[in-house]
Amino acid sequence: MVDLAIGLILVALAIGALLSSTLFGSLTLFFAFGMLMAVAWARLHAPDLALAEAAIGAGLTGALLFNALNKSPPEVIKERLRHPLSVALVCAAILALLVVSLLPSLDQVSPLPPMVGPRMDASGVDYPVTAVLLNFRGWDTLLEIAVLLLALLGVKVLLPTHTPAPQPWSLLLGWSKTLAPVIVVVGGYLLWRGSRGAGGAFQAGALLAAGAVMLRLNHVLPEIRWSQLLLRISVLIGLATFLTVAIATASFGDGWLTYPSAYSKALILAIETTATISIAATLTLLVEGEGDELQS
Amino acid sequence: MSPELLYLVVGATIWAVGLGGLLLVHHMLRRVIAVNLMGSGVFLVLVALAARSSPPDPVLQALVVTGLVVAISATAFAVRLASARAQHSSGTPEVERPGGDES
Amino acid sequence: MNYALASLAIPFTVALLTLLLQRRSEANPIVPAITVLATAVSLVFAGLALETQAVSGAVSHLNVGGWDSPLAIRLRLTPLKALLLGFVALIHLLTGLYAWRAKPKIARDYWPLSALLHTSLAALILSADIFNLYVTLELLSLSAVALVCLSGPKAYTPALYYLLLSLGASLCYLMGVAVIYGQYGVLDMTVLAGIMEADHSTRFALLLMTAGLMLKGALWPLHLWLPEAHTYAPTPVSALLSGLVVKGPLFILWQLWNNLAPEALAREMGPLFAAGGVVALVSGGWSAFRAPFIKTLVAYSTVAQLGYALMGLGLLLFLQERIYAVALWLFVLAHGLAKVSMFLAAGEMQTLLGSKRVTAMRGATQTIPITMSAFAIAGISLIGMPPTGGFLAKWSLLEPLFTQANHWPWASGVLLGTFVSAAYVFRAIALGFYQAPMSREPRHFDRVSQWLALLPALLVGLMAFAGQDLIAWMAGVTQT
Question: Are residues C124 and C266 in the same domain?
Fold first, then answer.
């Protein structure tokens, strides 16, 4: 019953987020959608993913969209949908075909999950999802950090948008000073726990980024410039470490990203820590970095 | 009806709603939302598929984490690009023609 | 395999290095030099990989991380993949050299971005894992969009459309991946190839992935975003986009239907692809004919030329004859070289003639003969006249069609496409032979840039002299 209600509300929120009469309404509904989605994932036995979705899918995406709403001109022309009925019919037909295609899969079993268990000892981490991310499918993760870097480079190419910085809210200002150290500690804890339980580099990075964004909104964080070596290093170090490991294992070891078993724990920890730093720095800049900060 | 089945259908529906939205709505931020809905729909399908085995399939869950990071990266770029476009095209929605800056 | 990985890792490392070197706001003069040099080294490694693969004729696999299949992500190196790696590096080298010479100076972010584009194409080519391919597709789109944005605000609107469509397309592809994983529980293409069945779920999954890839590859009817994006991008970027970026999704599409799909489904799909190809040829060619700007003309001709590739794929699936695979990949190579030449020449003309209009090419044979020859030779290859690579590709497409009477509709489609491409190419070239207007004296010549535009045209122009040998060799290369 609970699931049915969640599912129906999710669909309703999705439609509402698209069609709400004001942009502000759309964004609010989308934010609520992200939060409820996290609940749905928790219901599907994926609490750590739910945490990631709440931080990334709802939190950071929401911050981005609301930020953009402040900068974009008010919607002059009201949305006028062209051929709404025919598009809806086509999508409904695609949906029907999709559901029919997906239904048989619930009775199928994948050969992969049983393969993960016996290899956990050799993987260097204790938590299966982290093992898949950083070891079994490490190549995906390396490329995914490159995607993050590319998004930042894309933003860096754009001309700066000048907007008056929003006035910090005094209560938030007070709070954020207290919260900052807490966020750093929690982020570090999540990272450490990632190797043994739910958590990991992405959640930790996202949380740190969320904290940094909050501090930046309150002008607590010092000015950052792309010309600062430290900033460039923080952005690049995750990818650089990962790539170095890949090249080194291919040249001197058993092959591309094949960690020598004696060092796998240490290597994964190094990759995960540096990746967290890079993810946090990149996400912060993606959400908050201004053009002129990135260009000089 | 098992929760996996339910969420599988819900995920597919959200994906289809996002697809329709991408074709229908015009404002750039709404289009960004539409794309994100498509993403959320696929991820929900993947999470539901992961839950069909017990304990849940770690490979699928890892794919979702990767997908989330890719999605936030692309969304961030799209949103910033939309802001820059709104500010630098000086309010004219019409695309500037290449002949405009002919010398 | 290690050679191929080196060809991937070198531009990757250089991209990170050049970003780290961005100290001040002005450009660092060593950055272009390092990047171009690295591209050259990457080309050498791709060549070594090709030599090893082609000599042994073997397919090598690498399970990333050393884990066993189907858990690991698997990389796969075939002779065709090695050839494509070399092709990607070569095009990057040519455009890189051009960008190095370009006046006014190209934005410094061009260098890391193009190196990352090179990396993502290499990763895409090597991957044999349907989810990993999704990540490489995203890498490819984001680097392409960022490169388009280098042109400044006038490019933002097409860039944004390109990005949003491309994201939607990726998510169609990803939904297809979800259905396949739901059904078969694996992501490894080499494993999937053996177990896929021609049932409803598989068909629909493949269709979803195909729709996404066709949108990303600007294959008709999902090409509408391409002309604007390619027109507004800086010249070397337009060359990369037309020559390489649209070929990435095409390559995945080919693997999907040629290696993965059950034969019954592939046969069903063949005529649709081929028909789409014919329509692309005609409609893209017609738009190119009517295009007011030089770069728009070249961009629409990409839409038209991709029609040949789509036809090659369709006929291959439908008739199951290997020669069409040869035709398809010869088209990709010939088109890539010709398009680089055309875009670089178009960029040169814009600078030298001071106008973006096709009509400004009046008298160009007298004022800028080298650039005009590059444009003309590349154009002749696009039409498919001997002795160019375009001719060779078209000949391998047409020859088997002529031998069987009932294939005349496809043959006439190819011929119709030839007429349309001849129309738009000759419209531009004919203008070049008019009397040059006196007032338009060319300014600041750069001989090197002009020769750089001519070089790929000469390469493709002379491909047919290797004729039968090349076709035979390609037949071997495309075997797997």
Answer: no
The mean pLDDT value for B72-78 works out to: 93
Which is higher by pLDDT, A165 or C400?
Answer: C400
Residue of C174, C353, C443 to mutate, testing the B interface (most B Cβ within 10 Å of its Cβ) = C174
Q: Is pLDDT at C204 greater than 70 in this prediction?
A: yes
Q: Which of A9, A87, A132 to mutate to test the interface with B (most CBs of B within 10 A)?
A: A132
Residues 6+ apart with CB under 8 A from C468: none
Question: What ipTM score was computed for the predicted complex, to two decimals?
Answer: 0.91
Question: Does the predicted TM-score (pTM) go above 0.95?
Answer: no
CATH of the domain at B54: 1.10.287
Highest mean pLDDT: which range of A3-7, A169-173, B95-99, C224-228? A3-7
Query: Using CB atoms and an 8 Å cut-off, which of residues 48-77 of chain B contact chain C?
Result: 49, 59-60, 63, 66-67, 70, 73-74, 77
Interface of C with A in 142-201 (CB under 8 A): 142-143, 145-146, 149-150, 152-153, 156, 175, 178-179, 181-186, 200-201
Domain range holding B30? Answer: 3-90
- Cβ contacts (< 8 Å) between B56 and chain A: which residues? 44-46
pLDDT confidence bin for A242, thresholds 50/70/90: very high
Assess C363–A contact: CB distance below 8 Å, yes or no.
no
C35-41 contacts: CB < 8 A, separation 24 or more? C35/C11, C35/C96, C35/C111, C35/C114, C35/C115, C36/C93, C36/C96, C36/C97, C36/C100, C38/C10, C38/C11, C38/C13, C38/C14, C38/C115, C39/C11, C39/C89, C39/C92, C39/C93, C39/C96, C39/C115, C39/C118, C40/C93, C41/C10
* Distance separating alpha carbons of residues C195 and C69, to the nearest angstrom: 14
Domain stops at, among C100, C128, C156: C128
Residue from A18, A129, A143, A148 to probe the interface with C (highest C Cβ count within 10 Å):
A143
Tell me if chain A has a CB within 8 Å of the CB of C44: no
Q: Which residues of A touch C183 (CB under 8 A)?
A: 104-105, 108
Find tokens 């960008």 and name the residue: C99
In a domain, C269, yes or no: yes
Sequence ranges of the domains in chain A: 1-107, 124-296
Over the range C240-262, which residues count as b (16 or more CB within 10 Å of their CB) and which as e?
bbbbbbbbbbbbbbbbbbbbbbb
Domain end call among C94, C128, C162: C128
| Parent domain of C474 | 261-480
pLDDT, residue C404, reads: 79
Q: What's the structural domain count of chain B?
A: 1
Per-residue pLDDT tens over the stretch A169-202:
565 566 666 666 666 667 666 666 655 544 467 7
CB-nearest to C138 from B31, B74, B89 is B74
Question: Residues C271, C417: one domain?
Answer: yes
A288 residue type, one letter: E
Is C184 among the domain residues? no
Residue C327 shares a structural domain with residue C474: yes
Q: What is the mean pLDDT of the segment spanning C296-317?
A: 90
Number of domains chain C contains: 2
- CB contact set of C99 (below 8 Å; sequence gap of 6+): C32, C106, C110, C114, C236
The answer as to whether C83 is a domain residue is yes
